[in-house]
Amino acid sequence: xxxxxxxxxxxxxxxxxxxxxxxxxxxxxxxxxxxxxxxxxxxxxxxxxxxxxxxxxxxxxxxxxxxxxxxxxxxxxxxxxxxxxxxxxxxxxxxxxxxxxxxxxxxxxxxxxxxxxxxxxxxxxxxxxxxxxxxxxxxxxxxxxxxxxxxxxxxxxxxxxxxxxxxxxxxxxxxxxxxxx
Amino acid sequence: xxxxxxxxxxxxxxxxxxxxxxxxxxxxxxxxxxxxxxxxxxxxxxxxxxxxxxxxxxxxxxxxxxxxxxxxxxxxxxxxxxxxxxxxxxxxxxxxxxxxxxxxxxxxxxxxxxxxxxxxxxxxxxxxxxxxxxxxxxxxxxxxxxxxxxxxxxxxxxxxxxxxxxxxxxxxxxxxxxxxx
Amino acid sequence: xxxxxxxxxxxxxxxxxxxxxxxxxxxxxxxxxxxxxxxxxxxxxxxxxxxxxxxxxxxxxxxxxxxxxxxxxxxxxxxxxxxxxxxxxxxxxxxxxxxxxxxxxxxxxxxxxxxxxxxxxxxxxxxxxxxxxxxxxxxxxxxxxxxxxxxxxxxxxxxxxxxxxxxxxxxxxxxxxxxxxxxxxxxxxxxxxxxxxxxxxxxxxxxxxxxxxxxxxxxxxxxxxxxxxxxxxxxxxxxxxxxxxxxxxxxxxxxxxxxxxxxxxxxxxxxxxxxxxxxxxxxxxxxxxxxxxxxxxxxxxxxxxxxxxxxxxxxxxxxxxxxxxxxxxxxxxxxxxxxxxxxxxxxxxxxxxxxxxxxxxxxxxxxxxxxxxxxxxxxxxxxxxxxxxxxxxxxxxxxxxxxxxxxxxxxxxxxxxxxxxxxxxxxxxxxxxxxxxxxxxxxxxxxxxxxxxxxxxx
Amino acid sequence: xxxxxxxxxxxxxxxxxxxxxxxxxxxxxxxxxxxxxxxxxxxxxxxxxxxxxxxxxxxxxxxxxxxxxxxxxxxxxxxxxxxxxxxxxxxxxxxxxxxxxxxxxxxxxxxxxxxxxxxxxxxxxxxxxxxxxxxxxxxxxxxxxxxxxxxxxxxxxxxxxxxxxxxxxxxxxxxxxxxxxxxxxxxxxxxxxxxxxxxxxxxxxxxxxxxxxxxxxxxxxxxxxxxxxxxxxxxxxxxxxxxxxxxxxxxxxxxxxxxxxxxxxxxxxxxxxxxxxxxxxxxxxxxxxxxxxxxxxxxxxxxxxxxxxxxxxxxxxxxxxxxxxxxxxxxxxxxxxxxxxxxxxxxxxxxxxxxxxxxxxxxxxxxxxxxxxxxxxxxxxxxxxxxxxxxxxxxxxxxxxxxxxxxxxxxxxxxxxxxxxxxxxxxxxxxxxxxxxxxxxxxxxxxxxxxxxxxxxx
Lengths: 181, 181, 458, 458
Description:
Chain A is built from three helices and eleven strands; from the N terminus they run H-H-H-E-E-E-E-E-E-E-E-E-E-E. Chain A is of the alpha+beta class. In chain A, the strands form three sheets. Chain A has a four-stranded antiparallel sheet, with no helix packed on it. Chain A has a four-stranded antiparallel sheet with strand order 8-7-5-10, with no helix packed on it. Chain A has a three-stranded antiparallel sheet with strand order 1-2-3, covered by helices on one side. Helix content of chain C is 36%, strand content 27%. The interface between B and D is medium-sized, with 21 and 29 residues.
C-alpha cells in the first residue's frame, strides 16, 4: 500500500492495540480474587455470584448461613501450561508463608528477619502455647538476628489459637508468627 | 530462609508462580468483566445475568427474577495509554483498510493485489458509477497485476452505493472495492 | 543502495530482515496472508500488503501476488528469507524479468545447486570430497545393486529433488535395497513430482557440519566458519552451535577450504550454506548446498561479529563483499535453540493457539529472534517455529549454562513448546561431552519409549 | 567457589547478578522489601527473604536485616550491586566481621576512594592527572579566594562527601565565589552531614570518560578500556557508549594508563571505575572513583567479551584475574540507553505505576537488562530506572541505527518513560557528529524551553 493509504487505514494503531492487552493484568492471588469479588458484591446489592474460568470456580451468595464457598482446586493447573520450566512471572506472595490462609487481621507478624525461638533458652519453658491467653506487651517469642536475641511482644490481647512457625525456624520480615483471636 | 524451610513454605515456587500468573492474568481481566457486568446490572433493573465466553462463565443474580442472556462485546475500553512511540502490539486488522467501516456483507472485495481501474482504458467510460444497478457477473473494475488486466465481476446484484477506491489506486488482497446493497 | 525492499516471508525471518533494513535506512514492505494480519512483521514494516488467504499456496507462495505487491509499492528488491520461495529459481527469474532485484544468488546457480545430483557433480569438479555413490541418477534396480556392490553397504537412496531429510531411505542388504529403491522413487514422485533418485554410501553416526558462505557479484567469496547442527530430530535441526565443539583446528581449516572451493567453482554470490557429514574417522563428505540464508545464521553472526542479512542486501545492491577473505577469528561460542509450538509429549504434534503469557529471557549474551508477543495467535498454516534463542559466551561450557539459564527465564503459555525438551538435551552429560551423532535425539527418544513400554507392560 | 550468594539489591542489577550466579551454578538468595514482593528478582532467585518495608532505609539499607538474611540462608557472600550499600565501607566491614564475603574492594580502599579529597591525593601520588585546585579541604572564604587566584576562574566548589553531581557550585568571580562557598558548605552539611568542601579549576564543556578497572586479591589489575558517558541530564547519565567516539588511539592509551596507575597505587581488587573529565584541549583530569560495578558496565562487556559480574564473583572467591593484563582489543561499538519511568514533558517527574503493556526489542546486537514484565507495578520508593537497552554493532553509526531501531520496537505502557526522549537525542545530528559536551542535553532543553516561552508570549 502506498504510504498515504496506510495512514488512512482503519487498522488500529499500535498504541490502541497495546491497550487492549492492558486490561488482562491486574489482580493478585486467588484469595485476593475472592476478596475482590466480595468487594464487588458489597458495593452493590448482588446476592449471588458464580464465576468460572478454567481451573477457577467461585460461587458467592449473600445472606445468612455459609458466607461463601470456593470450589477447589484454586491453585490447580492453568488452562494451558507451558513446559515444565522455571517461570519468572509474577504473583503476589501469600500472606502467610508456611501456613494455611488466616484472616490477616488476627496474625502477629515478625518485625525482623531472623531465627524464631519459642523460649528464652533451650531448657526454658515456651513463652506461650496454643490455647493460652495473651496480653498486650507480653513477650511471646524471641527472634535472633545478628547474634542478638530480640524479644517480640504481643500487640493485642486475646487467645493464641495457632503458633504458625516451628522453634528454630528462620523467619522473614512480616511473616505471620501466631494467631490471636 | 533455609532450603528446607523454603520447601515447606506456601510461597509458590517459581514454577507454580508461573502458572498462577497465567491464571492471574486471565482471571483479572475476567474480574474486570464481572465488574462491568455488575455495573450493567446496577444501571438497570436486571436481576440475573449469565455470561459465557471462551471458557469464562459468569452468573449473577440479584434477588429473585428472570434470567438474562448477554452477548455484548465486552472487550472494549482499554485503561492506560503510553508514550508516543511506535508500538508493535497486536490487534485485529479491520476488515476494510482505507475506508470507513462498512457492513462487511455488502462490500465486494479485491480478489488480488494490483492496481484498480474503473474503466478498460483511460479514454473509456467507467464500468460503474455510484448509484448504478449492478448484475451478477457484470464487470465493475479492472485490477492490473504483473502487467495483466484482470476483469473483476460482481458476485451479487444490487445497487452500487459506494465506490471505495480511486482510479489508479493500489489495492491489496481482500480490500473492499465497492458497496452493493 | 535500495530505497525499498519487499520481504516475501513471515515470522521471525521477516522481522530479522525488517530490522536490518531499518538499521540501513531502507524502507520495508511486509506482505501477509489474511491469517497473519496481526503478525508483528506487518506492524514493524513501513508498509504492508495483504497478498491472499492463509494457506501458503494462496499467499506466500503466490508469485503473481508477490510481484504485484512489489510493483504497487515500488519496491526495488525482494528478500525471500528462508523457506517458501527462497530457493525457487523460477521466482528469482520472474523477479529479474520484472526489474526487481532478487536478494539471493543467481537463478542458474540456485537451479544447479538445488539439484542434488548436479550439485555433487560440481563438488567433485571443485575437489570437494563427496560420499562414494552412483555419480548421478540411478535408473533401475539392476544399476542400484551394482552401485551398492561397488561402494558397499550400508547405502542411502536419495531423491534428486529432496532435501532436509525428506525422500531418503537406507538399505543394508540387496534385498532391502530393491524394495527401498522402488519406495523411494514412488515417494519422490509423490513429494517432488520427480522420481529421480541416486545412491550414496551411508555415513554411519555422522555429525552435521555446515559452512557459511558469502559471495558478491564480482567473484569474491569468503566463508564465515562452520556451524555444528548435529542435534536433530527426524532430520530437523533443533540446536545449532558455532564453532563446532569437536573439530580440531586442522579439520576446521579443511572444511572451510572444501566449502570455499565449491562456492568459488559456482561463482556463488549472496549467502549460502554448504552442508557436510563428518564421519567417525574425521572425514568430511559434501551433502548439499542451501542457496539462501539459514535459520541458524545467528550463531555465526554472534561469533564473527558479522550481520549476514545486511551483507546479503549490500552485495545484492552491487557492493563488494565487506567480509575479509582471510580466515576470520571467531570470538567465543554461540548456541541457538529453536523453540517450536509443538508438544513433545504427543510426538511433537504442532500446537497452534493463542500466547496467553509471554516473557523473554534477557541479560548478557542472550539474543531472541521471534515474532511472538503476548496475545499473538499462532496460526495453523505455517511451520511451528515460534522463536530462536541464541546465546553467546566465551566458551562452549558457559554458552550451555547461559542457554539453560535463558530457557529457564522464558515463559510461553497458551501453546505447547519444545523449550523444556531442548533444556533436557542441553542439560545432558552427552550434550556437554560433545560425543554424539545426528541420531542422538532420535535414539534417546526410542530408548525412552521402549522403557515406557516395558514399564506399562509390567 | 561460593555455593550461595545473597544479593543485597533489587531491580535489574539483582537480576543481572542472579543470572551470573545461575550460569556459575551458584545458589542465590534474593532479599526484598514488602513493596517488591512481586519483583522478578524474587522469582528468579533460588530463595528469597523479605527484609522490611518499602522505604530503602527499612529494607535495602537495613544492614542487620541483610546480615540476618545471609545468616539464616547460609549465604557465604553478599553482592551489593550498585547504589544502596554498594559503596558503604561500614557494611563491608560488618560483612567481614560476620564471616560473609563482601563482593567488592577492601573496605579501607572503599573508604579511601570514597572521600573525594583523599582520592585526589591518591591520584596525585599515582601520577594520574588531576584538575588544579585546593589540594585538600578549603576551610574559609579567604583560602577559597587565594586558591581561585592561583588556578584562575572559573572554579568549582565540591563537597568532599558529594558525588554524582550533587553538592557542586561553579563560580566565575570573587564575588560569586564568596557566596557559593557558603552555600556549598551549608548544602554539604545538610545533604551529607559533612560541610567539608574543596575547590578545583572548572573544566568547561568537558566530556565524561571513564575507565573500567578489574583487580584481584593478588595485586593483579587490568583495565577494560573506556566508556563515554557525556550524554547527561543534570549530571545523571542517560546514554553511555564504549569505546568513546572521539578519543584518538593515543588518548585511549593515555587514559587507560592513568586509570591503571591509580588502581595499582591503591591495590584495587574487584570491579571499579575511574572517572575523568576530558577538556577541549584533549587533556584528562581525574574526577572520582566508583568502587563498585556501574550501571553502564554492559557496554564494556559487549565490546570486550568479558562478563564483569562473573569476574567480580570469581576474584571475590579468591581466583586470579582472568582478564589479560595486556591491552584488550575491543570488537565493535556498544551503546546503552537507560529507560527511566519519568515524564520528560513534566520535568522528568518519576512516573510509578503498573506496566500494562510490555514488549522488548530483539534481534541481532540487542541486549535488554530489565526487571520489567507485563503487569509489574513500579513502586514509588526506588530509583526510576526500568530497563537498560544495550546495542552492539560493528561501528558507532550502525550502533546508533540499531539503538533507534530497538527503541522503536520497545513498548512500555502504563507509565511514562524516557524512551522517546532518548530516541530524540540519538537521532540528532549533534549526537551522531560526536561534537558535544556534558552540557549538551541541559543546554538543548533550556533552548527548547526558551523557544517555547517566546512562542507562548507571542
